[in-house]
Give the backbone structure.
Amino acid sequence: MTTPLGGAVLAVLAAVGVHLLWSDLALGRRRLSWRADGLGGAARKQRRPSLDEWLVQAGLADVRPAELLGACATLLVIGAVAGYALFGGLAAALVIGLAFAVMPIAGARRRRAERLAVAREAWPRLIEEVRLLTSSLGRSIPQALFEVGRRAPEELRPAFEAAHREWILSTDFARTTAVLKERLADPTADAACETLLVAHDLGGTDLDRRLTALAEDRTLDAQGRRDARAQQAGVRFTRRFVLAVPAGMALAGFSIGNGRAAYATGLGQALVLAGIACTALCWAWAGRLLRLPDEQRVFDR
């Protein structure tokens, strides 16, 4: 068995490692960096979404950060109990509990990616419909926007409905577009709303041309991302499949020799921790290599 001090040290190291992975993979933060910014801040720093914005992009606008952390804490306890029952050691139990704790974050991250992908695919069509309604059918810009919003994908409709309510109450298109941008938290939505707002406030005859250019740009971006993900499909499947191999080997260990008692020894605990750490690091590294760049919001304020 590991000593209490050794188990505590391993648990702290595991907690720091999971925190860094969570910050990097889920929230996109960089807590540690070995690259200097250079004189005068020459290095470019990308804006990172806040936790509230990140939850909005995941379709969890009504979920408070405290509730998400509560779910993580509950799964931490469940995972720790299950880990102790399997491996009979405190250090391995805490590491497995921490792995369980990040599951809500991973699920929210997946929802965010799926929701942004749906918006990315839908916006070229929505922009084109707004263009047709304003140029060919003579609709006003707010009327065209809300009419198109009623035919938007289901994930996006609540944001358009909230913006429509704001317009009915205030008839202030600037506040209306601000509500829509806040509820969608999407770079394309920001650009489309700013284009429509300028055209609504200042008028002009080039709205048709601007919307056409924006729709073409969004179409090319969506097509490029589809092609990239199609080329990565096999690698992504292999990455998920490989997770089953170490898990299967660990479970098979219970039927070999003295089984669970071997995991409870100091060497057994060290090997379990090493295996979990290697699997987590390889998973995170592969995910980083496969990650497509996120678009940056520039009209969100």
